[in-house]
Amino acid sequence: MQTRDVLILPYKVTERRDGCWRYGAAMPIPDSRAQKIELFRETRRAFRRNEELFAEKSWVQVMMGQGIMPRSHHPIAANSSDADLARLLDTLRRTVAAAVRGLPDHASYVAHHGGIARDAG
């Protein structure tokens, strides 16, 4: 997906049609991008071509962040047993939990990156 198409996406999917929203909604996007949006809506499938800026997970975040929700599940779910899906989700939960444990809390992050002393005052 090209950066221009990512920037146009919110204008294409919003209900707003005042001011710049009307102009943005009228801007064309390539057929390949429209097909990508429809594929996501139908199956939650996202893919990345080599020249595209966004990876699959970024594409999913952009789509869902703009309110484009899948009507169905990814086809792999239909071909997996409940036990396989439970193992996959458990692995994902543990991976995310481990990553979160390694992150600083909000105050520490702001103090380090924002230059604000933790106990100033």
Name the structural class.
mainly alpha
Number of strand elements: 0
Number of H/I helices: 7
N-to-C SSE string, H for helix and E for strand: HHHHHHH
Roughly what percent helix?
A: 55-70%
Q: Roughly what fraction of the amino acids lie in strands? A: under 5%
Radius of gyration: 20 Å
Number of domains: 2
Gross geometry = flat
Overall pLDDT, averaged? 82
End-to-end separation in angstroms reads 48 Å
Q: Which residues form runs of ≥5 with pLDDT under 50? A: none
Main β-sheet: number of strands, strand sense, barrel status?
Answer: none
InterPro entries: FAD/NAD-bd_sf, Flavin_halogenase
Pfam family, one: Trp_halogenase
Protein name: Tryptophan 7-halogenase
What do these coordinates show?
The chain has 121 residues and is an all-alpha fold. 61% of the residues lie in helices and 0% in strands.
In short:
The protein is mostly helical.
List keywords for this structure.
121 residues, 7 helices, 61% helix, flat
